């Protein structure tokens, strides 16, 4: 293998590409990974030299703290290729800032910005052939940090690994989504880690979500943990409600993740003269709006699906199917966001980041 030094980054290229073994017309989300990965270790109190190497399994000591105490945080972002084969990221500084915010909450060290952007840029350049410019194609990027120190005493680790892996993705279609509004389980609590992209937040919602599956609902809408009266998140997505022509979403808090898609939708609504209210919204208000016909749409927002329309919901014994809209807001926002992401529209807020 030939190893070259680039700035502070060490790059070891894969001997051959496995790209031919991947069927780009039949990708299931997050299963195929590109030829290379980025990693950087934290030890002796500092981040070491970042490395790009062939994608391969890790070797970790079984006592690595991540396996025992769950010090693990991650991000989800995407790269898009335009018709001139130029690659773009979407608001990547926000992902960078957020992974450090998540890390700080889990007593993990913050990652340096220059190494993050250098590693990410070089990785995208090396695996450029994996990014397709066909409609809906994108590269899903997964940065994450785990505690690797081999020691099972219950305290924060002194050694970590920061990594970036990448998985080619097609337009994400989540299938028909109906949701169950939580009235028993909770995803996050005041003073907890709900705002962080902590791996454990996902682990905690798999079981209640599997109960929802059994009832025929694909996702759970989480409510506040104190009273279960306020609508908060859709688990892997933020959530928007359209009542008449007003868009409503809950304010971010300890319990609600500050989604980049969410804040982009709020900005696009303002840019396009759509009334948007960021305020607590009660389950009761939703149910009443469903009953009197003023509830027009519910949709989730997140990097993977961008916008995911929701077809119906259940809360306790109340079931509701949403009416079909001629010009749904969900489709409007998805198109606006995609147009910016694929460099097909102006970018007045400088959300695109050129690779
Ligand atoms: C990642 C995530 C979102 C969506 O955030 P984006 O930045 O829009 O991808 C929403 N809620 C939770 C709990 C998340 O983990």
- The SSE order reads EEEEEHEEEHHEEEHEEEEHEHEEEEHE
Catalogue the unreliable spans.
Answer: none
Question: What is the tally of helical segments?
Answer: 7
Please state the average pLDDT score: 95
State the share of residues found in helices, binned by percent. 10-25%
CATH class of the largest domain: Alpha Beta
Distance between the termini: 26 Å
Strand content: 25-35%
Q: What's the β-strand tally?
A: 21
Outline type: globular
How many domains make up the coordinates?
A: 2
Bound ligands, named by name, code or SMILES: pyridoxal-5'-phosphate
Q: Which CATH architecture of the largest domain is right? A: 2-Layer Sandwich
Structural class: alpha+beta
CA gyration radius, whole angstroms:
21 Å
Oligomer: single chain
**Main β-sheet description:** 11 strands, mixed
**CATH level 4 superfamily of the largest domain:** Aminotransferase class 4, branched-chain amino acid transferase, N-terminal domain
Quickly describe the structure.
By secondary structure, the protein is α+β, with helices and mostly antiparallel strands. 24% of the residues lie in helices and 29% in strands. Bound molecules: pyridoxal-5'-phosphate.
Verbal overview:
Its EC number is 2.6.1.42. Acts on leucine, isoleucine and valine. Keywords: Amino-acid biosynthesis, Aminotransferase, Branched-chain amino acid biosynthesis, Pyridoxal phosphate, Transferase. This is Branched-chain-amino-acid aminotransferase. GO terms for molecular function: L-isoleucine-2-oxoglutarate transaminase activity; L-leucine-2-oxoglutarate transaminase activity; L-valine-2-oxoglutarate transaminase activity. It is a single chain. The chain has 355 residues and is α+β, with helices and mostly antiparallel strands. It folds into two domains: 3-169, D-amino Acid Aminotransferase, Chain A, domain 1; 178-341, D-amino Acid Aminotransferase, Chain A, domain 2. The chain is 24% helix and 29% strand. It contains seven helices and 21 strands. The strands form three sheets. Strands 1, 2, 3, 4, 5, 6, 7, 8, 9, 10 and 21 form an eleven-stranded mixed beta sheet that branches. Strands 13-12-11-19-20 form a five-stranded mixed beta sheet, with helices on both faces. A five-stranded mixed beta sheet has the order 16-15-14-17-18. A hairpin with a 3-residue loop joins β17 and β18 (306-310). The model has no long low-confidence stretch (mean pLDDT 95). The site of pyridoxal-5'-phosphate has 14 residues, from α5 and β17.
């Amino acid at each position: 293998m030939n190893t070259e030094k680039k700035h502070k980054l060490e790059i070891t290229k894969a001997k051959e590409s496995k790209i031919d073994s991947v069927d780009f017309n039949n990708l299931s989300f997050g299963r195929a990974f590109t030829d290379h990965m980025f990693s950087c270790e934290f030890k002796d109190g500092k981040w070491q030299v970042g490395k790009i190497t062939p994608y391969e399994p890790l070797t970790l000591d079984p006592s690595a703290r991540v396996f025992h105490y769950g010090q693990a945080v991650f991000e989800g972002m995407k790269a898009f290729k335009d018709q001139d084969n130029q690659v773009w990221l979407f608001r990547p500084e926000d992902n960078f800032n957020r992974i450090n915010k998540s890390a700080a909450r889990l007593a993990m060290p913050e990652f340096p910005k220059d190494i993050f952007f250098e590693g990410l840029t070089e990785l995208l350049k090396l695996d450029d052939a994996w990014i397709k410019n066909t409609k809906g194609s994108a590269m899903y990027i997964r940065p994450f940090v785990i505690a690797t120190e081999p020691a099972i005493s219950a305290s924060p680790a002194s050694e970590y690994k920061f990594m970036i892996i990448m998985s080619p993705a097609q337009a994400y279609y989540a299938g028909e989504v109906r949701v169950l509004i939580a009235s028993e389980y909770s995803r996050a609590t005041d003073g907890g880690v709900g705002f962080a992209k902590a791996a454990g937040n996902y682990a905690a919602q798999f079981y209640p979500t599997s109960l929802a599956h059994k009832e025929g609902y694909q996702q759970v809408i989480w409510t506040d943990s104190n009273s279960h009266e306020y609508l908060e998140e859709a688990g892997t997505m933020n959530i928007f409600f359209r009542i008449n022509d007003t868009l409503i979403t809950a304010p971010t808090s300890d319990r609600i993740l500050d989604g980049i898609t969410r804040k982009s939708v709020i900005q696009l609504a303002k840019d396009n003269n759509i009334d948007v209210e960021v305020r607590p919204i009660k389950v009761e208000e939703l149910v009443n709006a469903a009953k009197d016909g003023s509830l027009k749409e519910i949709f989730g927002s997140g990097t993977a699906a961008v916008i995911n329309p929701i077809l119906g919901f259940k809360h306790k014994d109340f079931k509701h199917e949403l009416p079909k809209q001629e010009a749904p807001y969900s489709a409007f926002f998805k198109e606006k966001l995609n147009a910016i992401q694929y460099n097909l529209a102006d970018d007045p807020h400088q959300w695109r980041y050129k690779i």
